[in-house]
Write a structure and sequence with these properties.
Low-confidence stretches: 10-33, 42-50
Strand content: 5-15%
Number of domains: 3
Protein name: (apollo) hypothetical protein
Order of helices and strands: HHHEHEEH
Largest sheet: 3 strands, antiparallel
Number of strands: 3
Shape: rod-shaped
Oligomer: single chain
Structural class: mainly alpha
Keywords: Coiled coil
Radius of gyration: 69 Å
Number of helices: 5
Mean pLDDT: 75
Length: 212
């Protein structure tokens, strides 16, 4: 039975590959592949790769304070604007409420005026009807009153004319007309001249009027 052995060169080559693979593994990322480097050089290289606090940019505290002040001022301005807007809005709301109340009041007053106008129109119509009735009655009364009266026109107006003068004129007129019976003073109830210069003679009876 023959035994095969690995040549020495191949074993050395295998060890080198294993060493290279171990160098590339995760557990030896910071290890140097050069065996000539010692531990001190490795520590120096590792430290040089890290950033210190001194490398960060410096921000002074005054800048942060100024930013805070700016935000505070901005907030104050926004609060003031909001307060002004709120005040203006409340003023507008109050004015709208007052306008609404005024409109409601005017509406009620308008309705009251319409009701009063309708009532006055009804009263006016009633008054017109009453006036028409009174005029009709007055015409009837005048006709009845003039049932005993006569109207004489085209007689000139005398100087200082009064009822006595008018009575004498009527007596003379009766004589001129040749009345069968003379007119007595007691038969005349009233005598007067109108604005149209006509003489109205009101007798005591219709019979005396008919015989004139």
């Amino acid at each position: 039975m023959s035994t095969q052995r690995t040549p020495p060169g191949s074993r050395q080559k295998l060890n080198i590959q294993n060493s290279a693979m171990h160098y590339n593994s995760d557990s030896a990322l910071n290890m140097s592949s050069n065996p000539d480097l010692d531990d001190n050089n490795y520590i120096k290289i590792t430290k040089s790769l890290k950033r210190t606090l001194g490398d960060l940019p410096f921000q002074p505290l005054s800048s942060i304070s100024e930013i805070k002040v700016m935000f505070a001022e901005l907030k104050t301005q926004q609060d003031q604007k909001f307060e002004l807007l709120n005040t203006a809005l409340m003023t507008i709301v109050t004015q709208n409420q007052e306008i609404q109340k005024s409109v409601e009041t005017l509406t009620h007053q308008h309705q009251d005026l319409l009701a009063k106008i309708n009532h006055l129109e009804l009263e006016n119509n009633e008054y017109k009807q009453q006036i028409l009735t009174l005029e009709t009655k007055l015409d009837l009364f005048e006709k009845c009153a003039r049932g005993n009266s006569i109207e004489i026109r085209n007689l000139p107006v005398q100087t200082n004319e009064n009822k006595i003068v008018l009575n004498d004129i009527i007596h003379k007129l009766g004589l001129t007309l040749g009345l069968n019976t003379l007119i007595q003073d007691t038969e005349i109830r009233n005598i007067f001249r109108t604005k149209t210069d006509a003489i109205i003679v009101d007798f005591n009876s219709i019979l005396r009027k008919e015989t004139f």
